[in-house]
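Checked the freezer inventory, then went back to the computational side. Two predictions to log before the end of the day. The first one is the construct we discussed on Monday; recording sequence and tokens without edits.
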Amino acid sequence: MSGNWQRRWHPLLSQWVLISARSAARPWSGAMAISVTQNQPEHDPDCYLCPRVTRANGQLNPDYQGAYAFDNDFPSLSADAPHDASTNNENQLHRTAPAQGHCRVLCWSEHHDATLASLDQASMRAVTRLWQSEYASLSARQDIENVLIFENKGVEIGVSNLHPHGQIYATGFVTDTATRMRDAQAAHAREHKGESLLQSLLNDPHTQSDLMVEKNQWFSVIVPFAARFAYETWIVPHRHVSSLADMHNEELDELADVYQRQVRRYDLLFQRSAPNITLLHNAPCDSARQADNLHWCFHLGFQPPLRDPEKLKFLAGFESGSNNIVNPVQPEQAAEQLRNIDIKQWQP
């Protein structure tokens, strides 16, 4: 299948993605992405996320071990958002609505120099249990409509604290991306007698033959047909589950194992502790569209910002102005590269 000058439809986001493999060969004289995340100390007394360190708000971190969560000291959203920012539709040009929510920080390990790739199996599985418990707790709140769990990893994407951690933004509204995804999945279910959009994508013959990276009992790792990033992958469950809360222990264990294998693939592909943006797409938890939320299929997305070990992918003029992302790597080629990586070669 051609990877040059082709538009591909992204069914979850309802937008076109440009696949332009020839652009990867363009001469490059710009900045190079150099890894600076190596040789971190096991404990950093100046790191606000390490055990036994006093955070910026004056609170002392406990001597925690393993996965640990706490409220973000500098939240982008708050349950205490001022009520004078209530919804105002009188002026359609200057509409406002409350920015209420709850922000959490999730430390993967007490060790400052760890990554999810380097954790032992028990510690990695504890992380998926933390994801589940945090989602279940936050999604049950009456003031929360959407729970996005994510990890920003690497100074290349602007991370200021290298301690292994993720975040949760539990919002009092359904985010724009979640709204697009829900609309697409609900429409697909209506048009295909209740069939899940993600399950349809997963079971598609082209996905199975050319876009599959790994397949196990409970999950598959695939490169999306309309991947927006050069080596983007999704972890998709074989059983229809709307959120982490619906997963049983065996699924959570395998999710941890599959997740770790995939980040190790990225480390090997990019020859470093690879930067990444990881997104856990759980169903919205608002009451207004509960029926549509049932058609949502949980999936986990990796969006590595690297095109190759030394080049970052930037969204510049055309992509910022058009909202049509240009992927310089053919998704089928990316899947083959990732599939052929020998994970046994990974070393801390």
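The second is the one RB wanted added to the comparison set:
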Amino acid sequence: MRTLSVVTVALCMSFTGAAMAGSDTDAREIVKNAVAVIKQYGTADGANLLNDGYGDVHRHDMTVAVYKKNGVVLAHPRKGLVGRDLSDNRGDDIHCERLAEVDVCAISAKR
């Protein structure tokens, strides 16, 4: 029984590690998708489309936020945060790509 517990713990740890490794890949992918929307439609229209759920910008427990350079939110799944300054929370971003006018970042969907 003791051996089974050790094996179970080892398997759980390996699956957890695989999930964490995939989260960086997922973060990069959803940011890439959001950047494509911004580049195709422009900053303002692209942000509006992302606010309306356009594009593949959600994975597991992550989503995308678009910030102006000063930290004000342009696009966020919780529309109530659009227009607010979240520059104090920027350290929690999982992965960001910086464009000329905005930063497109993968964030925790819980944020």
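For RB: The two ends are 41 Å apart (CA to CA). The domain at 2-108 is CATH 3.30.450 (Beta-Lactamase). Let me know if you want it refolded.
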